[in-house]
Amino acid sequence: MNWLIEPLTFEFMRHAIATAVLLGILCAVVGTYLIVQRMGLLGDVIAHAVLPGLAIAFFFGVDIYLGAFVSGTLSTFVVTWIESQSRIKVDVAMALVFSGFLALGITLITVLRSKLDLHQFLFGDILGVTTIDIWQTLITTIFVLVLVKLFYKELLFYTFDPLGAQAIGLPVKFIYFGLNAAITLTIIASMQAVGVILVVSLLVGPGITAYMLVKELHQMMVVGAVFGIISSISGMYLSYYLNIPSGAAIVLVVSGLFLLALLFSPHQGILAHRS
User: Fold this and answer.
1) Maximum alpha-carbon separation in the chain
2) Which of 12, 106, 220, 234 has a Cα at 20 to 30 A from 268?
3) Burial of residue 247, with CB atoms counted within 10 A of its CB: 0-12 exposed, 13-18 middle, 19 or more buried
4) How far, in Å, are 62, 93, 227, 271 from residue 106 at the CA level?
5) Higher pLDDT, 47 or 227
6) Residue 120's Cα: distance from chain center in Å?
7) Where are the transmembrane segments (predicted)?
């Protein structure tokens, strides 16, 4: 059992694994709503849209995560505005906003001569998390999970039938904003672990793996969270013993689990249909 215990003797590994487990749970729960609404690209949009906020906040000495939240949330409003004011489909609007905000972020970092570590935010550095970072991730996770629990029925109705939810008087605009805020918070919490480039895989990967195995939304969340935890811990151990980037290792495990589910799922697996 030495191979299992040895990484835990290092404080940075204990911090990294604790953070990864929390993110595995958080991303699986929030990502489930993205998957069911077929809005996986929105996570990618928000992940890259935080860059302008990071650059501006860093320049003015404001909390960079506050700037990231404002910028990420703004991107979702821009997507909605473009869709509502034109004949442009939502996927095209998201692609445009995705590239536009990313280009703006890179430009601002250059123009403002920011000393912001762009490499860290793009690719993550989970081995550098501190105790404060763990507490911030824990608070974010608890906050989002409590809100999901309290408003589960409303979110469930809105997710599968937004027009019906509006017809019975549910505040669909508020629910839409709340979901986008939760997605943005999740992405910001995950940036240090896997970076904005790989965060979408962590956001939707465990959820779509669970989707191959179960049918109910709450089951997707629970099973997805289990896969998120397994992926996070396995990825950290692979990173330690194979000396590969931690974020990439976690995402590779996520992708591997999905591939197994895609092939061997009893109900939807490719090989199950052939047998």
Assistant:
1) 61
2) 234
3) buried
4) 18, 20, 34, 44
5) 227
6) 17
7) 12-34, 94-114, 134-152, 164-188, 194-214, 221-240, 246-265
The model's pTM: 0.88
Q: Is 271 helix (H, G, I), strand (E, B) or coil?
A: helix
Amino acid at 232: S
131: Cβ contacts below 8 Å, ≥ 6 apart: 15
CB 24 within 8 A of CB 34: no
**Residue 112: exposure state from Cβ atoms within 10 A (0-12, 13-18, ≥19):** middle
Cβ pair 119, 54 in contact under 8 A: no
Scanning the structure block, which residue is given the tokens 């793009």?
122
Closest CA to 208 of 26, 33, 19: 33
Token pair for residue 28? 């699986």
pLDDT of residue 43: 85
Q: What is the C-alpha to C-alpha distance for residues 219 and 197, in angstroms, rounded to an integer?
A: 28
Residue showing tokens 């996927």: 91
Q: Measured between alpha carbons, how far apart are the two ends of the chain, in Å? A: 39
Angle at CA of residue 159, ends 232 and 100, nearest 5°: 70
